[in-house]
Amino acid sequence: MEEKKYNAADDIYSKILRAGRRTYFFDVRSTKAGDYYLTISESKKFTNEDGSFYFKKHKIYLYKEDFQGFSDLLNEMTKYILDEKGLEVISEIHQKDFKKEEHSESNKSEVSSEEKDSNENFTDVDFDDI
Prior knowledge:
The protein is an alpha+beta fold. It has 3 helices and 4 strands; from the N terminus they run ββββααα.
């Protein structure tokens, strides 16, 4: 494996958060003037058709003068999401064992005959075929 050489003056402090297919890197770096800033990088693993892997990477540079505003908005937005949707992950993509909730018998009886007819006549369309 190739070892990357870093300028010791640039890299000050690093932490890694592994989250499934995504990995987040938090790195404190140094400017030429000796001040610090934060880089937040996301690396996401993908699989080619032949089974080999590749990564897509995105990076944010965050400077001290923006810390408070960034932190305030991040806290506000994460609080909003958790208040609205809770901690449970509901995406099929992220949960391999996710099962769609079955309608109970009482819910089935509430479906009108018009809805049943429209559902029976619905054709599943695959947009890749168009």
